[in-house]
Amino acid sequence: MAYGIAAVWVPVEDMDRALAFYRDTLGLTVEKQDTDWSEVTQGELRIGLNARETAHTVDGGAVISFTPEDSIDDEYARLKNAGVTMTGEISDHPWGRIAPFKDSEGNDLQLFAPPA
Fold first, then answer.
1. Which of 47, 79, 93, 110 shows its CA 20 to 30 Å from the CA of 104?
2. What per-residue confidence (pLDDT) applies to 2?
3. What is the pLDDT of residue 52?
4. Long-range CB contacts (< 8 A, 24+ apart) of 82-91?
5. Over the stretch 43-94, which tens digit does the pLDDT of each residue have?
6. What is the rounded CA–CA span in Å between residue 85 and residue 102?
7. How far apart are CA 66 and CA 14, in angstroms?
8. Whole-angstrom Cα distance, residue 73 to residue 71?
9. Higher-scoring residue by pLDDT: 51, 21
C-alpha cells in the first residue's frame, strides 16, 4: 500500500522557463536543477520537472492544486497580473473554491481553498 507521494512529475520543454515559473511566479523552492530534471518543493509536495519527455497537454490529465497563502481572490489577481494564463474564473463549490490556470509549459494547475 502506498503511504505517501514521493513526487509529482510534469513534462517541460524549456527547463529555464519552467524553473522561473515555479520559483519566481509560484514561490516554490528549487531543490535540484539540471538540464533534463529539476525538482521544486513546497512543504511536503515535491514536483519533478521532467525535460526527458515530450511536453504536451492532454484533456483529463492530472492537475496539481495549490493552496494560496492568502485569499484565493488575492492570489488569483496576483497570478493574473503576473501574466499567468488563467483558464477560468474562481468557481464556488460545496467542497471549496477553485481557480484553474496553466504553468509555463501548458500543464494544468489550480488554486484551491476549502469551504469557509
1. 93
2. 55
3. 74
4. 82/25, 84/25
5. 988 999 998 766 555 555 678 889 998 899 999 999 999 999 999 999 999 9
6. 6
7. 22
8. 5
9. 21
DSSP summary character for residue 28: P
Give the chain as a 3 state SS string. CCCCCCCEEEECCCHHHHHHHHHHHCCCEEEECCCCEEEEEECCEEEEEECCCCCCCCCCCCCEEECCCCCHHHHHHHHHHCCCCECCCCEEECCEEEEEEECCCCCEEEEEECCC
Query: Can you list the domains of the chain with their CATH numbers?
Result: 8-113 (3.10.180.10)
Residue for grid cell 514521493: 6
Strands of the sheet with 45-50, listed across from one edge: 8-11, 45-50, 37-42, 29-32
